[in-house]
Design goal:
By secondary structure, the protein is an alpha+beta fold. It is built from four helices and 17 strands. A six-stranded mixed sheet has the order 4-3-15-8-9-12, covered by helices on one side. It has a five-stranded mixed sheet with strand order 6-17-16-13-14, with no helix packed on it. Bound molecules: zinc ion (ZN).
């Protein structure tokens, strides 16, 4: 069972489901030529996809286009269903830096056939994740800067203020579909700048007030 810790405390949580939001930044929707969704686009990664800070990404041999997606991760600390936006932040235990690695070629192929994308999103090591910082350490999760560098070059740079759905709205909407339980993780979507990674690449994600995540590609 995967466990995540809250930095500077003795709190740890067994990881439940990892719920991911697609299409939450307009500039990323445009770069992929997707439509703006009415309802949130939601998918789930298995806990076996987690990769700790400092780890090595293994790109599956069945893909030639593994893309990075830098995202703010939320850790649920208190159970809830149909959580009102006004109470959403009180359900959070922490924030972390995450990558939602995506096999774009496999995803495009499955999407074009109208099939689920699971294997393009949930493979082993597809969810690199930093340590969580306590939720109280982040003053306003809807106004923090995200930066991803690959081999020292900036590939993604944005602010969570550009999200179409705020952290509160995401928690409210996700909890209308799924009961959120302690240890569940939510990935809040990626801004523009996604691109292919390859063997030997060094990735460094940074989110203001949250921390950094460093991983490499085998
Ligand atoms: Zn994503």
């Amino acid at each position: 069972m995967h466990q995540v810790k809250i930095k500077g405390t003795d709190q740890s949580y067994p990881v439940g489901k990892i719920v991911c939001l697609g299409r939450n930044y307009l500039d990323h929707i445009r770069e992929l030529g997707n439509k703006v969704p009415d309802r949130a686009v939601i998918f789930v990664k298995p806990a076996s996809s987690l990769l700790a800070d400092g780890g090595t990404i293994q790109i599956p041999s069945y893909s030639n286009a593994c893309h990075h997606e830098l995202e703010l991760a939320l850790l649920i600390g208190t159970e809830g269903k149909n959580i009102p936006e006004g109470q959403a932040l009180s359900h959070l235990a922490g924030y972390a830096v995450a990558l939602d690695l995506t096999l774009r070629d496999i995803q495009d192929e499955l999407k074009s056939k109208g099939l689920p994308w699971e294997i393009a999103k949930g493979f082993d090591t597809s969810c690199p994740l930093s340590e969580f910082v306590p939720a109280a350490q982040v003053e306003n999760p809807n106004a923090i800067q995200l930066t991803l560098k690959v081999n020292g070059e900036i590939r993604q740079q944005a602010n969570t203020a550009q999200m179409m759905r705020s952290v509160e709205e995401i928690i409210a909407e996700v909890s209308s579909f799924y009961t959120l339980e302690p240890g569940d993780i939510i990935l809040t979507g990626t801004p523009a700048g996604v691109s292919r990674i390859q063997s030997g690449d060094q990735l460094e994600g940074e989110i203001e007030q949250v921390g950094t995540l460093k991983v490499s590609v085998a």
